[in-house]
Amino acid sequence: MKIVAISVDSVDINRGHSQKMGYTFPLLSDTDAKVIRRYDVLHPHAGPKNTDIARPAEFYVDSNGTVQWVNLTENIAVRARPEQALAAIDAAGQRPR
After folding, report:
1. Which SS3 state, helix, strand or coil, does residue 28 take?
2. How confident is the model over 67-79, as a mean pLDDT?
3. Contact 33/19 with Cβ under 8 angstroms?
4. How many CB atoms lie within 10 A of CB 56?
5. Under a CB-based contact definition with an 8 Å cutoff, are residues 45 and 51 in contact?
6. Model confidence over 10-60: pLDDT tens digits?
7. Hey, which bits of the chain come out as E strands?
8. pLDDT for the residue 77
9. 52 CB-near residues (< 8 Å, 6+ apart)
10. Residues 6+ apart with CB under 8 A from 53
11. Can you tell me the distance from the alpha carbon of 51 to that of 20, in angstroms, rounded to the nearest whole number?
12. Would you state the pLDDT for residue 85?
C-alpha cells in the first residue's frame, strides 16, 4: 500500500510544503490538473488570483486502479481522520497486517 498526495502546485512549492509539514509520503505536482480532473475534484478559480485548485478529497484506490472509497468536502479545513481511511481499507480487505 502506498500513500501519495496530489496538488496543482509546482514541484518546488510542494517540496517546501512537504518539508515544512514533515510529510513522509510523496506530494506530487499536477500543474496541468490532468489527474485532478480525472478524479473530478477540480475547483475552478477557487485559488489565489482565481487559479484552479483541487477540492479537498481522499481516495482509496486499490491495486487494480479501482476507487474503493472517496471522502469529498468543500471545506479546505476538513479532512478524513486516519481511522476513517484505515476503516475503508480494512472494509475492502486490502490493508497489510
Report:
1. strand
2. 81
3. no
4. 17
5. yes
6. 999 999 999 999 999 899 999 999 999 999 998 888 888 998 888 888 888
7. 5-7, 27-29, 42-43, 53-54, 57-61, 67-72
8. 76
9. 8, 33, 42, 43, 44, 45, 46
10. 8, 42, 43, 46, 47
11. 23
12. 81
Supply the pTM of this predicted model. Answer: 0.71
Is residue 1 within 8 A of residue 95, CB to CB? The reply is yes
For cell 487559479, the residue is: 51
Q: The cell 502546485 sits on which residue?
A: 9
- 94: amino acid identity, one letter: Q
Q: Hey, what amino acid is at 46? A: A
Q: What is the largest CA-CA distance in the chain?
A: 45
Closest CA to 62 of 32, 31, 38, 93: 93
Mean pLDDT, residues 64-71: 88
